[in-house]
Each structure stands twice: as C-alpha cells, then as structure tokens.
Write a structure and sequence with these properties.
With 82 residues, the chain is α+β, with helices and mostly antiparallel strands. The chain has one domain (5-81). Helices cover 35% and strands 20% of the residues. The longest helix is centred in the middle third of the chain and has 13 residues, at 32-44. It starts with a helix and ends in an 8-residue tail after the last strand.
Length: 82
C-alpha cells in the first residue's frame, strides 16, 4: 500500500486527536512494512522531517531508517506543505 503524506497525516490526526501528541506507530492502522517504508521516505526529506518526530518508548518497535522507534508526533505546521 502506497500512502500519500496527506493520508499518513490524516491517520495520525485520527489516532492522536490533535497535532503534537505522540502516538504509537501501530495506532496508525498501517502494516509494519508500509509504516516503516512510508516513514523512511518522510524522514529522508528535510522539508517534511522537520515536522515529524519519533520517539523510542514502551511498545512495538519499528525500524525507521535503521533506528528503532515506537511513537510519532507531527507538528501542525506540516499543513503548510500538504
């Protein structure tokens, strides 16, 4: 499944309820493989990655560009580039 950045942000907002809140990557309702691939791509683009923040906490770990991550938060400012 190839998700657009807008689709990923919508899934994040649905899971988080608001921008800026950390949610488990698994809460986005995307397969592990698709989650890792989509966030690898977003993380590699500076103009996007500055709005996307990963954290390693308790929970299922995903490999984002080779680093273990469990949670993501997205800044409201990402809307400027959607």
């Amino acid at each position: 499944m190839d998700l657009t950045m807008k689709e990923i942000v919508e899934r994040y907002k649905n899971a988080a309820g608001a921008y800026g809140k950390a949610v488990p990557l698994g809460a986005l309702g995307i397969s592990r493989e698709d989650t890792e691939r989509a966030f690898d791509i977003l993380d590699e683009d500076y103009h996007i990655s500055r709005y996307v923040h990963f954290a390693k906490a308790a929970g299922a770990s995903y490999s984002i560009n080779g680093f273990p991550q469990t949670h993501v938060s997205i800044d409201r400012e990402i809307e400027e580039i959607l």
